[in-house]
Amino acid sequence: MKKLLTLIAVASIMASCNSNTTKETTQTLDSNSIDKHTQSNADKVKVKHLHLDIAVDFDTRKIHGCATWDIDNPRAEDKLILDAYQLTVDSILVDGKRAEFSLGQPVEHIGSALQIPIAKESKKVAIHYRTGDNPRALQWLEPQQTNGKQYPFLYTQSESIYARSWIPCADGPGIRFTYTARVSVPKGLMALMSAENPQQKNDSGIYNFNMDVPVPAYLMALAVGDITFKPIDERTGVYAEPAMIDKARYEFEQVGKMVQMAEQLYGPYRWGRYDALVLPPGFPIGGMENPKLTFCTPTIIAGDRSLMNLIAHELAHNWSGNLVTNATWNDFWLNEGFTVYFERRLTEAMTDKAYGDMLWELGYQDLEKTVEDLGKDSKDTHLKLDLTGRDPDDGLTDIAYEKGAALLKLIEINVGREKMDAFLKKYFDEHAFKTITTAQFLTYLDANLIKGDKALADKININAWVYGAGIPTNCPRTQPVRFVKVDEARTAFLQGKPAKELVIAGWSTNEWLHFLRKMPKPLQTTQMQALDAAYNFTNSGNSEIADQWYVMAIAADYKPAYAAIDKFLSRVGRRKFLEPLYEEMMATDKQQMAKDIYGKYRMNYHPLAQMTLDKLVK
Ligand code: BES
Ligand code: ZN
After folding, report:
1. Which residue from 260, 391, 431, 453 puts its CA 20 to 30 A from 60's CA?
2. What residues does the ion ligand 2 have nearby, CB within 5 Å?
3. Where does a domain end: 162, 195, 226?
4. Residue 9 in this model has a pLDDT that exceeds 60
């Protein structure tokens, strides 16, 4: 297959060399530009459309039904290969006739190849299947684990390669298809997908969906539960459990405006509606950019709209990621680094530079920590990754996010905002609904922004960023004016000024995070007590601040926070919050505490969070 792709690449390079009119970038297929995390042959047999007809069964905790793929086989391949992860396949019909399929031995991380014999003229492949015992994408919640405590809940998390655990599919970011779905759920519940969505429950429990814009499988999403809707403006709105809907609606007040601002920055929003779904607290990540319907954690509902940069982030993915998609998981920074850059620009536009600068600095601190953890010479600190034979989750670090975003900021500083924005807008337009590799991006950057300016190229030194380790010496660092007062307050406190007397007027979440993060570790018990007495961190309703405080509490063995930590870990499933807490316990002789708490609450966490924590707590 590799040879074949190289041949195609050479042919297309030649084609574009021969033509004077196409400005197409040439494709350098170095060995890790090929997606090694899918076994599907959708590069040869076209999978155009999926119709999903499924039932969601909370009693058996299974999804079952039929996935029908519309295919096109112009090259007369003798089989279609799809990805499947622990699926049970009952039967397959090709154009109505039973086919002798085979389901291969599972490959670590990747799952099984589902091979289906087809002919040149084959058009419809209907796969009758059921999900396995613990599909990686799915989390089934008992009523007790929801806000309302009345009804069960189900949600999916398909990125990066988990769609195959609930749908037999061609599961690579480079393969796009449209879809329709008919989903049957218990009466009284509502179903939502990454598609045009209902705004009300219906009595039948049957919901029909249409996604007419082609998307890769990692953007397939489903949520089922006691969900209601409130509009924000004509094209935006919010879904949540009834117990959360008003808080969510308040928090999301600015989202309509945010979409408009995003369009002003980088061109039209091309997905119709933009809604967000606030999930129960077990959701394993902060947010997921499922098209038309961002999924997000309730831990961003702080009551004061101070964590809305997460929505800015997921919204931004509708350009970087959903519109222009990383070709393989080795190119993940093209999704996330661009999105963090876009998110910060959007947040700055919604607030001001002083506010945006704080996010850049907090991001830089995250990057420093990540490089320290991975090792400054580690290949995992390159922007271009090599995840061959590994779980793509290994690439989910702040390298893609913060090193990626910092590179774009460096380019911006060197060319100026006007040129940068014009370049990015053009980049999104010209690559809309396409995938891109790192090498293709570099070629495009050369042709459209660097334009042979050797001095500029030297200043940026992009190869050191993309193919080199650690934090490059020209990495921009922001000095937020609003952190000056924070540093002063912290210093004063450490020199003995009473906590209550610190000047903290007007501080946002960002100031508090910076204040706490740069404290010495561990603080003395008396210092912890003084801070807690003044600011009640132990009972903070702001999840970011609480999480940071709890890490400090574990380090300082500050017992008054332990009941709150236990409660937090019982409720919240967001990996970003769980990991540092369990890590700190494991690192500070509190292994038994970690094991006890994890033993109690493991079943509350999503399979993906379990995977991460199983490695950590043992
Ligand atoms: N697309 C990611 C989440 C993701 C990436 C899930 C890879 C699984 C594999 C999402 O956009 C994201 O980055 N979420 C962050 C938001 C934060 C950077 C504002 C999160 O969940 O914390
Ligand atoms: Zn993201």
Report:
1. 391
2. 336, 339
3. 226
4. no
